[in-house]
Design a protein that fits this description.
The protein is α/β, with parallel strands linked by helices. It has two domains: 148 residues, Response regulator (Rossmann fold, 3-Layer(aba) Sandwich), CATH 3.40.50.2300; 88 residues, Response regulator (Rossmann fold). Helix content is 30%, strand content 19%. It is built from nine helices and twelve strands. Strands 4-5-6-3-7-8-9 form a seven-stranded mixed beta sheet, with helices on both faces. A hairpin with a 2-residue loop joins β5 and β6. The protein is elongated. The relative contact order is 0.11.
């Protein structure tokens, strides 16, 4: 397994590079020099003693005029500045530039009920790297990208697939971290996968997990990991307001819920019922359907006939199959 880089600088660079790739935004910075700049005018030196041979200048005086420039600014403590490390140099235009490489691991549901969604997400990750000079390693969805470069860093993308189950997601991520040496993990797609990866990646503080679309609230709301970052919403955010609208605008008083049996739909249903029940509404039945169910007849039979509406929270091929039945 590859030797790890120092955590501090690489964690910062890792997050910045990942944000660039997700947004497919323009690389580079604002043109400011990352190293410490020398003062615009040198301080007035103290008058030299009137002696035949002046003493050596005190430590607080500016460097002699004939000293060779170091390229790291005139600060005496430039060696302590992380920006002055061997991995960061200054370019001709003053922008900070890094050297080395970053391996990004991407995981999404390439099998199971959300396979189509995972396929689309991997195309998006690849497209971002192609815009930074990368080349596809092959035509299969699981083939990665090499040859991309961002801010002087060589970027390699490795891809693993899951089936929306936590165990498969953790095993796939373990291969990318412990075998491929991934510095950053992007993903996963499903809620329970995200919770499992948070627990796994907590033991690798030098690796950064940038959440994909895993929308369980508990990913960052409860017991957060310091190396896990979320930039999207959670399940409750998507459905807050529905319960109020159903009660006040549509006049519904009794509803049933049908949702997949895992963390993301739990949050969706919870947000709806929190508002609906607080206003006086009644929930006649809560129906939880396992992922990947083929025959939904027994679940359809549980829906009461006398409800005003059914709140439905399913996705992928499960949603299509349920509606057809």
């Amino acid at each position: 397994m590859r030797q790890r880089k120092p955590t501090g600088v690489w964690r910062l660079l890792g997050v910045l590079v990942t944000l660039l790739l997700i947004a497919a935004a323009c690389g580079g910075g604002d043109g400011e020099d990352a190293t410490t700049q020398a003062p615009a005018t040198a301080p007035e030196p103290a008058p030299a003693p009137v002696t035949p041979e002046p003493p050596a200048p005190p430590a607080t005086e500016s460097a002699p005029a004939d000293a060779e420039p170091t390229g790291e600014g005139a600060s005496d403590d430039a060696g302590d500045d992380p920006a002055a490390s061997d991995d960061v140099t200054a370019t001709d235009d003053g922008a900070a530039d890094a050297t080395g490489s970053i391996t990004i691991g991407a995981i999404s549901t390439l099998d199971g009920p959300f396979a189509a969604l995972g396929d689309f997400s991997m195309h998006g990750v690849k497209l971002a790297l192609l815009e930074y000079g990368g080349e596809l390693d092959g035509t299969d969805t699981r083939d990665g990208v090499t040859g991309a470069s961002v801010a002087g860093l060589d970027i390699e993308l490795v891809i693993e697939g899951s089936d929306a189950t936590p165990d498969v997601a953790v095993e796939a991520t373990r291969r990318m971290v412990e075998q491929d040496g991934a510095d950053i993990i992007i993903g996963p797609l499903s809620g329970d996968e995200g919770l499992a990866l948070k627990d796994y990646i907590r033991d690798f503080p030098e690796v950064t997990l940038v959440n994909g679309t895993s929308a369980s609230q508990d990913l960052t709301l409860r017991d957060p990991a310091p190396n896990v970052f979320r930039f999207g919403g959670d399940g409750a955010m998507w459905t807050f307001g529905v319960g109020t609208y159903a009660y006040e605008e549509l006049g519904y008083r009794t509803i049933a819920t049908v949702a997949e049996d895992y963390s993301y739909p739990y949050d969706q249903v919870g947000a709806v019922l929190t508002e609906f029940c607080a206003l006086g509404g009644t929930v006649a039945e809560r129906i939880w359907v396992p992922l990947g169910t083929q025959d939904y007849s027994s679940f359809v039979a549980q829906i009461p006939d006398d409800v005003d509406a059914v709140f439905f929270a399913m996705g992928g091929t499960d949603a299509i199959n349920f509606v057809k039945q």
